């Protein structure tokens, strides 16, 4: 795979991961009611996310309510919120920086070494964004697992388990880190050596023709 194709593939993967991270941050299904056990004791399915909690009736009606207070939330929710916001901001700046540094764009093409360095910087931003998403989702999942096994007095079908947003977040983190890694494969040092060799070889070639 050529350098330009590798950068384009990395950018598209990172962009897809960032979009998936946005979806994961917005979705309220970070944890949901567990339906394990012998009998379902309620006809209402509960979903909770970073920003709201929802109740789905058996008739298909869904009612959602935003979290009332920021300071009254659990620490893991506040931490996951902060990590997801930081992740989305890093990914947004990574999108802008990577477009400037990619070989397939015309911006700054007169200086390929600096252009490659900008592409690497965009890849680093994407990797940091993916790691923040991974940390937020994994922290929330660890808390859900801890509460599921800790509350022994609560029936299993009244506890919470992983929601679909967690899996979306894990996939988003993987895509973003993969895309950022491909963008970081741009090596400005090789390009610098190639330019120096080309400049040194030009005078000798010109003297031969004279």
Notes on the structure:
- The protein has 210 residues and is an alpha+beta fold.
- Helices cover 63% and strands 10% of the residues.
- The protein is built from 5 helices and 5 strands; from the N terminus they run H-E-E-E-E-H-H-E-H-H.
- The protein has helices spanning 3-26, 75-101, 112-150, 164-183, 188-209; strands spanning 31-33, 45-48, 52-56, 62-66, 160-162.
- A 5-stranded antiparallel beta sheet has the order 4-3-2-1-5.
- The model is unreliable at 191-201 and 204-210 (pLDDT under 50).
- Rough shape? elongated
Oligomeric category: single chain
How helix-rich are the residues, as a percent range? 55-70%
The tally of beta strands, per DSSP, is 5
Q: Output mean pLDDT.
A: 80
Cross-sheet strand order for the largest sheet: 4-3-2-1-5
Largest sheet: 5 strands, antiparallel
Structural class by sheet pairing and helices? alpha+beta
Order of helices and strands: HEEEEHHEHH
Low-confidence stretches: 191-201, 204-210
Tally of alpha and pi helices? 5
Radius of gyration based on Cα positions: 24 Å
Strand % is 5-15%
How widely separated are the two ends?
Answer: 40 Å
